């Protein structure tokens, strides 16, 4: 169980940077009233963030990733159980890779 | 619409709602634990990093850059750049956070992660603004994160899964399932397509994290806001 000073310093630097990101956006919003366009953007931001996350990840995985991701989406839309949806996505990808 | 609150019941409901999603986080935690072990970090150092940073992608990237002595500046910068996407998330949660102050406000923000953010947005849209829901969801994720990084560090060397193993698809599948509660109707289609295409373009140009995500998120959100304005003008 060692804890080296340089490692601790790097971890604390990572913590400070990450907290700045987590709290900074809201802190700015709290002191300034953003223009209406920015407020409307914040309404649309959640979906856009996750789509922007997913598109490159699926593109990298090729068609098996699209099929597996699509199945996860359909299961979530139909049954509303996230655990089931995740297991379906992994299972479908596993099956495709096993059959290839 | 109920006013913003911070209740014990909300905390419990957030934690329970997040439980299913932790399946998407678990393989990722294992990978971070394995990477830390491979770079020579002790179990204590690994757990300290996971406990305090609690942001998987940035931890993984920092660990890829790791050297001896530890790269203080590079690891800090990696976190700053990769976690920049969390800044607009905090801003988008304003309806639930505006009545809070002090430790409740900054402590809830300090453990904000992508998945708990998405669950809280769905709560706000359903008219519930209990910020303790967000804290509960984040801390449920945090608990699983700690357990899985510990397991990854302890047993990772024995398991050795290839990086393209289907298990690692769990984090992508979790984000796919998150899209469902975030969907508000057909007016979302065009902004979402713009977000995806911009992210693909940025990636095609060879830009690394976080630029594809930020370009897609901001471009898609701006498209949605522009469409809203256009629609409101048509009505006026």
Automatic annotation (TrEMBL), chain A:
Per the UniProt record, one Pfam family is AzlD
Query: Cross-referenced InterPro entries, in alphabetical order?
Result: Brnchd-chn_aa_trnsp_AzlD
Which UniProt keywords are given for this protein, alphabetically ordered? Membrane, Transmembrane, Transmembrane helix
Task: Look up keyword Transmembrane and say if it applies.
Answer: yes
The UniProt transmembrane annotation reads 47-67, 79-99
- Identify the domain of life: Bacteria
Mind telling me what this protein is named?
AzlD domain-containing protein
- Species annotation: Belnapia arida
């Amino acid at each position: 169980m060692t804890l080296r000073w340089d490692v601790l310093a790097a971890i604390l630097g990572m913590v400070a940077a990450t907290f700045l990101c987590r709290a900074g956006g809201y802190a700015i919003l709290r002191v300034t009233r953003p223009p209406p366009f920015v407020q409307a953007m914040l309404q649309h931001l959640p979906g856009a963030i996750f789509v922007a996350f997913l598109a490159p990840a699926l593109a990298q995985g090729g068609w098996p990733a699209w099929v597996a991701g699509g199945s996860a989406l359909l299961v979530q839309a139909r049954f509303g159980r996230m655990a089931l949806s995740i297991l379906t996505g992994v299972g479908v990808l596993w099956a495709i890779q096993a059959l290839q | 619409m109920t006013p913003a609150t911070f209740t014990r019941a909300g905390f419990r409901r957030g934690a329970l709602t997040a439980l299913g999603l932790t399946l998407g986080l678990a393989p990722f935690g294992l990978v971070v634990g394995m990477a830390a072990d491979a770079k020579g970090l002790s179990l204590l150092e690994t757990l300290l990093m996971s406990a305090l940073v609690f942001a998987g992608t940035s931890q993984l990237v920092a660990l890829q850059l790791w050297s001896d002595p530890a790269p203080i500046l590079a690891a800090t910068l990696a976190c700053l750049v990769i976690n920049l996407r969390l800044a607009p998330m905090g801003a988008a949660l304003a309806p639930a956070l505006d009545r809070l102050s002090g430790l409740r406000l900054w402590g809830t923000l300090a453990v904000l992660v992508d998945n708990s953010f998405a669950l809280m947005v769905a709560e706000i849209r359903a008219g519930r603004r209990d910020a303790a829901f967000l804290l509960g969801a984040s801390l449920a994720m945090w608990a699983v994160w700690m357990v899985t990084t510990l397991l990854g560090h302890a047993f990772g060397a024995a398991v050795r899964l290839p990086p393209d193993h289907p298990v690692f698809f769990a984090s992508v599948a979790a984000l796919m399932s998150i899209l469902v509660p975030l969907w508000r109707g057909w007016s979302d289609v065009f902004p979402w397509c713009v977000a995806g295409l911009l992210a693909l373009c940025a990636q095609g140009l060879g830009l690394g994290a976080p630029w594809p995500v930020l370009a897609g998120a901001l471009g898609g959100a701006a498209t949605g806001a522009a469409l809203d304005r256009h629609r409101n003008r048509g009505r006026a």
